[in-house]
Amino acid sequence: MINARVESALGTQSNNTKVIRRVGIISRPRRADISRVVPPLIKWLQAHGAEVLCDSETGDCFGPLTVQTQAREELPAQADLLIVLGGDGTLLSAARLAADPPVPILAVNLGGLGFLTTVPLDDLYEILDEVFLGNSRVSERVMLEAQIVRAGSIIRRQIALNDAVLNKAALARIMDVALHVDGEYVTTYKADGLILSTPTGSTAYSLSAGGPIVYPAVEAFVVTPICPHTLTNRPLVIPDAAQIEIDFQAEDGTVFLTLDGQVGIELVKGDRVIVRKASEKLRLVIPSKKTYYQVLRSKLKWGER
Which of 173, 193, 214, 261 is the most buried (most CB within 10 A)? Predict the structure, then answer.
């Protein structure tokens, strides 16, 4: 069994010790290297006393193994630790499933840039050794909750780790987006859309649209207009305790609310979008020897010519 000592995002040790009996493995489906990576990982975990579960997508990538396979959405409820193999997209999908109840996730980068999947494959077993020894750190990441209100009733609730994005199917068309914070009118953007991001999501779409990088422990949301018609409409940082309300007007075309770039919800005229801090949180296992600033320097190539 694994004794994982849980720590905060700032590295302060908690008094809680979590005994991990089951480890779940989630991967990006149909990756050619899954069949190379997963079998020895399963053997390693079993040799250290852990029962191993895989999502069915992972199980389809290789031959029969002596592990149980489950539907991906069912796996977090049965595991004490999730190992996610892939890129940030794979982690974003897993995070929405593993947020309630919060299951620690060890994200291993098999993709490209990987701001969230900061553990390279070469370091996987070293990090697992830390988990076994009780020296692992867990960074708690705030998630956002988006509600769609139609005719006075909430018709959809969705959580996201990175961002909620309002835009049109035809991005070249400008739309009017009215922003209210805690009931107070802020402004109406004429823009291609609007991004509401968490600190974790500040290095994603919001960064590409000119938003700031926000340290993960900062209690804030970032409001970033996409290609605003008025150049003085700059990204806005607000407390994450605030309630954000968005109303929109689009004379033609389809308007979507997109969560984490993966869940798209079509909106109709008169819909309102309400965004607030979610009660759910992501618990991300992070390397003990790597800081957030080191990740930024590495991923963004800071200091390189």
Answer: 193
